[in-house]
Write a structure and sequence with these properties.
Layout (H helix, E strand, L loop, with lengths): L3 H12 L8 H10 L2 E7 L22 H14 L3 E5 L8 H6 L2 H10 L15 H11 L9 E2 L12 E6 L2 E8 L16 E2 L2 H15 L4 E6 L12 H7 L5 E3 L11 E4 L5 E5 L7 E9 L5 E10 L7
Parallel strand pairs: 1-2, 5-7, 7-8, 8-10
Antiparallel strand pairs: 1-11, 3-6, 4-5, 9-10, 11-12
């Protein structure tokens, strides 16, 4: 069967339209690449700077920022447009946080080239002043959260509700949503923070990104949790009750999804939800193809095990 590229190539050859240097076909192929996007993501890394010790446990040798950085760099060499994101709970879980209060975690993420994160409940564990200080001193990426009113707190000017990224010809809007803090975060650690309904804010921000900012892909970095047995707001409920979110990268429940799950939103459109466990054991990968029309397709997905022995 004659492919589109072969058809174009054969006709150009016949017409003598190839010229010295870069050919029209090369330009067309390069143009197609500008409509491809690879999203890499983590969640709930919980201060796991080193891999798990070789102690016979099921996680021995897994995780660690060095192995993750190698995988990320390999993918960046192979793919032209890569977006690296995190869904919160950067802090708490190893002595690194107990001693250094988040400095090595933020420095590691900056070194790996993370482009955005959201706030998890454990990111409050050193208090808002500490979080603001770590971000100010060490972060080369924004912390995105749209449903916490942080007015009058140390984090007031240290976060953003959303950010827009341009990768090739693709415009991506990314925003963050945090979980209801009652029972999870001590009042003294989150003093002054007002929690706003995530479904309402999710609809509001996603609508703005779609209609006012003309984004091709809208991503929510969610620390709400994958799903619950009660009516608590989760990624599943967020997907069902909103209208313009295309992808939810989740956290909080430490859910290991073998593959992304697709839900229907209020309009009957697909919303992709993914989460890759905890402790940096896995790195999520989602590859999207876009046409020159307002369409997008998830062409490939994988959950890459983070280990020095990882081979692709």
């Amino acid at each position: 069967m004659l492919t589109r590229k072969t058809f174009i190539y054969n006709n150009m050859m016949a017409a003598g339209t190839l010229f010295a240097g870069k050919s029209l076909l090369t330009e067309l192929v390069a143009d197609e690449k500008s409509y491809q996007l690879t999203i890499l993501h983590t969640n709930d890394v919980h201060s796991r700077i080193d891999p798990f010790p070789m102690d016979g446990s099921s996680n021995q040798g897994l995780g660690g920022v060095a192995a993750r950085a190698e995988i990320i760099e390999k993918i960046r060499r192979e793919e032209e447009h890569v977006l690296l994101l995190d869904a919160g709970d950067i802090f708490q879980g190893t002595p690194y946080f107990n001693f250094y209060k988040g400095e090595p975690e933020i420095k590691a993420m900056s070194s790996m080239g993370y482009e955005a994160t959201t706030i998890g409940n454990h990111d409050f564990d050193g208090g808002l002043e500490n979080l603001a200080m770590q971000l100010t001193n060490h972060a080369k990426f924004p912390m995105l959260v749209s449903n916490y009113d942080l007015t009058g707190t140390p984090m007031e000017y240290k976060h953003e509700p959303y950010k827009i990224f341009k990768k090739g010809k693709i415009k991506i809007g990314v925003f963050g949503l945090g979980i209801e803090m009652t029972g999870l975060v001590s009042e003294n650690l989150s003093a002054g923070t007002k929690y706003l309904d995530p479904v309402t804010k999710g609809n509001e921000i996603a609508y703005k990104l779609r209609t006012e900012k003309n984004c091709d892909l809208i991503i929510c970095l969610s620390h709400l949790g994958y799903q619950y047995t009660d009516n608590k707001v989760s990624d599943k409920r967020l997907a069902n009750e909103t209208e313009n979110i295309d992808l939810i990268i989740g956290g909080h429940t430490h859910t290991f999804l073998n593959a992304p799950v697709v839900f229907k939103n209020k309009k009957g459109n697909d919303v992709i939800v993914n989460q890759v466990g905890w402790a940096g054991i896995n790195l999520g990968r989602l590859d999207f193809n876009f046409s020159k029309y307002p369409t997008k397709k998830l062409s490939k997905s994988s959950s890459i095990t983070v280990t020095k022995k990882t081979e692709e």
